[in-house]
Amino acid sequence: MTFPTLFISHGAPDLPIREGATQTFLRGLFTEIPVPKAIAIVSAHWLTAQPTISSAAKPATLYDFGGFPPELSQLVYPAPGHPTLADKIANLLTAQGFPVRLNGQRGYDHGVWTPLILADPTGRIPVVQISMQPHETPAHHLRLGKALAPLRDEGVLIVGSGAATHNFGGFSDRYDAPPPDWAVAFDDWLANAIAQNNITQLLNYRQIAPFAARNHPTEEHLLPLFVALGAGGQGRQLHRGFTYGAFSMAAYAFA
Questions:
Q1: CA 69 – CA 191 distance, rounded (Å)
Q2: What percent of the chain has a predicted confidence (pLDDT) above 90?
Q3: Is the pTM above the cut of 0.90?
Q4: Is residue 90 very low, low, confident or very high in pLDDT (cuts 50, 70, 90)?
Q5: Superfamily of domain 5-254
Q6: What is the number of other CB atoms lying within 10 angstroms of the CB of residue 58?
Q7: pLDDT digits 0-9 by tens, 174-223
Q8: Quick one: CA dihedral 227, 190, 8, 74, positive or negative?
Q9: Fewer beta carbons within 10 Å, N or C terminal of the chain?
Q10: How far is CA 21 from CA 134, 163, 250, in A?
Q11: Are 104 and 56 in contact (CB under 8 A)?
């Protein structure tokens, strides 16, 4: 079968220990879609000048955050890496003109493990992480996704892990705080543009979408969406909601 691709808003690092609708959605993810042979994931928390691919056989769990409950640092994501898949991804990207590096030391940052430890807590699915380029455009990441698309026919689930809205200035002390109007407006616009498959609007979201710069003062948390979009196709929303006020937890499938 040909797998869909996913964009997941991973929210704050304490996602795995917070009960709520997003946690329920992620725990049931592999009832919504079949279990893949492997996952190739682009995270907003691995930023490099050129595409870099994790090739470690046993990646460590990285605790790349502070100020959250100490029990988070006791969680370990046990999924293995997949060096053979890492090599294949490198070849696919190289064939499309991307300069590529392999990194045999990179562990799973929280953009990877906080959603996946809910979806696959036993770590049965191997994972390869791909970096993103924060100084490149949405079009660059769309092209990156298109280069990865052949993996969908080989049992690989391509995932972009970021955030549909991401402004720490709107971060509330309350996990269940209501979202501000400016975050809802952007979240609604994004859902509508994806439902209409309006690639032109999405690529130019910064000039078109309401409160675009306020929701994304920097772009790294939305850019993984364009990888999923490029590798997939027509999108549909799988989940929506907000945490800590301004953090959209929206998730999309593209197929």
A1: 32
A2: 96
A3: yes
A4: very high
A5: LigB-like (3.40.830.10)
A6: 9
A7: 999 999 999 999 999 999 999 999 999 999 999 999 999 999 999 999 99
A8: positive
A9: N
A10: 30, 16, 11
A11: yes
Size of the chain, expressed as the number of residues it contains: 255
Query: Which tokens go with 71?
Result: 């029990």
For the chain, domain boundaries: 5-254
CB-based contacts of 184-189 (< 8 A; 24+ apart in sequence)? 184/242, 185/210, 185/211, 186/210, 186/211, 186/212, 186/214, 186/215, 186/248, 187/240, 187/242, 187/248, 187/250
Predicted pLDDT of residue 174:
94
